[in-house]
Amino acid sequence: MLSAWKKMYAAGTSSLLLFTLLISAGAGSASAAEAAAAIQGSEQDVFRIVALGDSITAGYEPGMTDPNVKPYGYAERLLEQGWYHGRSVLSNYGILGLTTTGLLNYTAAIKDGAVTTADGIQAGLPDPRINQFAALTPQIKTELGEADLVTLTIGGNDVSSLLVTAKDLTEEAFKAQLDQLLASYSSNVKVALENIRAVNAKATIMLADQYQPAPKIAVSSSYLKLMSAAQQFTKAAENVAASLNQPDAPVKVAHVAEAFAGVEASRTHIISAGAADFHPTQLGYETIARVFAETYWGEYRVPSVSAWTAASAPMSIVVKGVEVNTPNKPVLKNGQNFLALKDILNAVGATGKWDNKTQSAAIVYGGRTVVITIGSQTIKVNGAAVAIDTPAFLQKIGNEDKTYLPLAALATGLGFDVNYSSKLRTAFINP
């Protein structure tokens, strides 16, 4: 398989990946049953992101060959940013090796709600999931029609050959190829955006411009030419967006290119295998996510605790967009997140009563009453017993016993939406 990858890289294809279909919200979130229970009755409150495009959208990094490895690209980070603002879900349909022509074909099939084929999207795509993506077009049309935000990264596979051959081209030949690429890019992307708009008349659409990934040290003789080309692609993206932008149906450009300019080495992998393969590093993906988030929300938030901090540090808890500061350390037990009863009551504004005799807590919120008993494998929701995976427990903190409740059980019982990001070591709770 790896030899086949090298062959595709040598042919100028910039993407290949073996990882599972990116449709769910991401790693570490509650189970599908729990998520469904949490969201039931509140569908109108869910912020929906649909990500379309190429391997940048897919979150690919060179060497990602394990089908069990879940990507952590810009789209997954953007979902986390959504959790800071409320209930959010992500549908990621980034296709490895996709060109602007392929995006045009794919969005046309989505607009029609017609099942297509791999070759109907783009011949020779290296993505091992492509047949699944092709068959999902009716479902994607539904998801796209319900989206609040649609994001796109596209164009890298169109210009990859120019990136590699720039040093060998005369100024005239380089300009001729660039002009042709810009014309094709503008035409294809505009039609693709029109297809998206035909499915969803109101969602915000954000198109990333095409950043120049090669550091000066790697392409010293052609760096200035490539930077100039990137600036022209930015202008082309801005022109396309402006032609479709409406006050009640925004089309915006996420200016990724300027965030990479001059710092490409730290934000881009460079692998030579007969040809160059440029994909973002984790820092690069965070940079892209930051640009998208700041363009949409005006901010990019980072928790006080993350996977990069000491393992002994407590995880972060974010409730309704506010990080909970408490002396009571959150606990991760048997794969479940637990928080002290008092802290969760204060954070969400619920009321609670502790019964020392029955060793149970009665919690009231939003018309629901949940009774959680220490050590019990069930909770009672409005009097009905509901099974839970891990029971509540008492933990001694100083001279006091604190009641710790499983967040997933609270999500089920009180209707909260709970998601856990292992990368950020943060639990997001949205009533």
UniProtKB/TrEMBL annotation:
Residue ranges of every copy of the Copper amine oxidase-like N-terminal domain listed in the record: 318-429
Alphabetized GO MF terms: phosphatidylcholine lysophospholipase activity
Residue runs in coiled coils: none
Pfam families reported for this sequence: Cu_amine_oxidN1, Lipase_GDSL
Keyword terms: Signal
Secretion signal span: 1-32
UniProt keyword Hydrolase, yes or no: no
InterPro entries: Cu_amine_oxidase-like_N, Ester_Hydrolysis_Enzymes, GDSL, Mao_N_sf, SGNH_hydro_sf
Entry keyword annotation includes Methyltransferase: no
PANTHER family according to UniProt: SGNH HYDROLASE-TYPE ESTERASE DOMAIN-CONTAINING PROTEIN, THIOESTERASE 1/PROTEASE 1/LYSOPHOSPHOLIPASE L1
Protein name: Copper amine oxidase
Organism the protein comes from: Paenibacillus graminis
